[in-house]
Amino acid sequence: MKKSIILLIFLFSALGIFTVHAQQMNSYNMFHMDRYLQNPAAAGTKPYTFISCNYAKYWSGFNGSPSIQNVNVHSLVSERVAFGGKLYNENTGLSGKFGLEATYAYHIPITSGGSKFSFGLSARISQYKIFKDKFVLHDTDDEVIVYSQNSMISPDASAGISIYKENLFYIDIASHQLISPGIDYMNQEYLENKQVRHYYIGGGYNLNINEDLRIEPSVLLKLVETGNYQINGGVKVEFKKMISAGCYYVTNSAIVPFVGINLRNIALGYTYGIVTSEIAAHQLGNHEVMVIIKLNNAQSNLERD
């Protein structure tokens, strides 16, 4: 019984989220709309104060399936310095995670044409939770449950770099879980989940076909320190800088059609993930919704979308 519970908690858990190649970090399909989700160096890369609200539901129709809620904001506060912050909540039915993150980023012009280099650092504090009342146990004296705390708080950090030109291209590299704490719920003898580093390498390019049509291919490679990996890549087509549609493929996980609308002060995006993994027959797909709000920022002279 003890081994079964450990498997449930850490295989189907926000601590090892969504079991795709043993990743422990959450994964968003609309990374191309909000790069700050994956890279702290993306804070301040927009010519406005950027506010993003994201909701993702995975394996809908499956009892206790994972969900994520995330709100983040970032903005330049001077010509080169930017700050950002995140508030996130993850729930898998049996366990969850709630946390805060603060980011500092610095931007350096590298060409006269507007290309820049940035680096960012983030500090994070998370509360990990086990929902003991949702377990159905045959052994009520199971050591994993009896001797574990309901929650624990753990700090961590991430860092990243980026080379970019707004509205043209970006190359991102980031590393997460730099401190790599063990999540044992004060029960190290029976339960421990060592957090390992995750690396994200991404890129995208805007290809202007004409005044009305723009194509944006993008890709995100996610590497786990244990050697596991995942690739998320695809193409988005944008018409009149307002209406967009595309499709992305997540290796060994899902095919993800995308639709979006981009207005002057707000952008909306939606994806439906067609699951291709072994669990496909037992659920109704993945849903992700993102709302982006753009507020004027006098500190930036970048071209606005």
What are the SSEs and their pairings?
Elements (H helix, E strand, L loop, with lengths): L1 H10 L36 E10 L9 E10 L4 E11 L3 E15 L6 E15 L12 H4 L4 E15 L3 E8 L5 E2 L9 E2 L3 E8 L1 E2 L4 E12 L4 E11 L3 E8 L3 E9 L3 E10 L10 E11 L9
Antiparallel strand pairs: 1-2, 1-17, 2-3, 3-4, 4-5, 5-6, 6-7, 7-10, 8-9, 10-12, 11-12, 12-13, 13-14, 14-15, 15-16, 16-17
Describe this structure in words.
5% of the residues lie in helices and 52% in strands. It has one domain: Porin (Beta Barrel). The protein is mainly beta and 305 residues long. 37% of the residues are buried. Strand 14 and strand 15 form a beta hairpin. The strands form two sheets. A 14-stranded antiparallel beta barrel has the order 1-2-3-4-5-6-7-10-12-13-14-15-16-17. The longest helix is centred in the first third of the chain and has 10 residues.
* Rounded radius of gyration (Å): 20 Å
Distance between the termini: 55 Å
CATH class: Mainly Beta
Kindly state the number of beta strands.
Answer: 17
Assign the structural class, choosing from mainly alpha, mainly beta, alpha/beta, alpha+beta, or little secondary structure: mainly beta
Tell me the name of the CATH homologous superfamily.
Answer: Outer membrane protein transport protein (OMPP1/FadL/TodX)
Mean pLDDT: 84
Spans of at least 5 consecutive residues whose pLDDT stays below 50 are 1-22, 300-304
Instruction: Based on the coordinates given, report the CATH architecture.
Output: Beta Barrel
In DSSP terms (H or I, runs of 4 or more residues), the helix count works out at 2
The total domain count is: 1
Please trace the helix and strand order, writing H or E for each element: HEEEEEHEEEEEEEEEEEE
Largest sheet: 14 strands, antiparallel, barrel
Tell me the fraction of residues in β-strands, as a range.
Answer: over 45%
As laid out across the biggest beta sheet, the strand order is 1-2-3-4-5-6-7-10-12-13-14-15-16-17
Shape: globular
DSSP helix fraction = under 10%
What is the CATH T-level topology? Porin
